[in-house]
Amino acid sequence: MLGAFTGFVIIGVLIATGYLVARVRLLPEGAGPVLHRVAFFVASPALLFTVVARADVHVLFSRFLLVSAGAALIVAGLFVVASRVWFPMPLVPTTMGAATSAYVNANNIGLPVATYILGNAQYVAPQIMLQVLVFSPVILGVLDLSTRGEVHLRDVLAQPVRNPIVLATGLGAVVAVAGWRVPDVVLAPLQVLGGAAVPLVLMAFGMSLRGQRPLAPGTRRRAVVVATGLKAVVMPAVAYGIGRALALPAPLLFAVVVSAALPTAQNMNNYAARYGRAEVLARDVVLLSTIAAVPVILLVTALLHP
């Protein structure tokens, strides 16, 4: 339980640092988007490659992956249904709302939580692989194509190759499955670059909060509240139900529920900022789900820790 609290403190300090940097105007105006681009094109791909390439294949492809996929798809579907009934929105914000409901923060907080609570950082590797190789191409494809106003099948199929985050994770999965060992002379620089991903993304997120407040009028408050509730409460409950149905052993059930209870990934804010689409929706759900995840993960730990 102390490990979960430590992970949230780290995230809170980095976000607060970014906010203070913007508040005192330590960096030039527009520095936040620059940090986002560095994280998106350089640091995050390096981090994802090093994590996935060294993951245990038996952990990557297991019932853990099946439960994670099922919970994410169910929750995303629930958001789409809710949006159609209560707050109809265009395609892009609906896609971002569904994504923020189901796409967990497996990197920035998932890694420290998996390390300190679950005792094995590889538990987040299946989610990283699932989200980046399967979910990200869909999300990024919608965002990418929305900026051009037209959809071509070849662009959708080429999305994994053109996106550095998707490409790096795919290469890491190939290395892990093949059992190759990445030479230290290659791995070490990538680890250094990857180490910058979490601070860059969190500080950029903190900088984006200056002058903003969550749930402001005219910011699709219903969508934010529904997405936050689905992410913080419904997704771990669905994961628990699927895990019990599949008769997961207690340690694995605990791990998959904790993973499902992780807050919305900072990448959602990063993606929205990168393409200039549904930024307020993504930012508010990331912030509120991160706050809500603290008591939820502590409760899951108290109830299910084997």
**Per DSSP, what share of the residues sits in E-state strands of 2 or more residues?**
under 5%
**Radius of gyration, taken over Cα atoms and rounded to an integer in Å:** 18 Å
The residue fraction in helices comes out at over 70%
Distance between the termini: 13 Å
Structural class determined from secondary elements: mainly alpha
What's the helix count? 15
CATH class: Mainly Alpha
Mean pLDDT: 85
Q: How many distinct folded domains?
A: 1
What are the segments in which pLDDT stays under 50 over at least 5 consecutive residues?
none
Tally of strands: 0
Biggest sheet descriptor = none
Describe the structure in your own words:
- This protein is mostly helical and 306 residues long.
- Helices cover 77% and strands 0% of the residues.
- The chain is built from 15 helices and no strands.
- The longest helix has 26 residues, at 279-304.
- The chain is globular.
- The protein starts with a helix and ends with a helix.
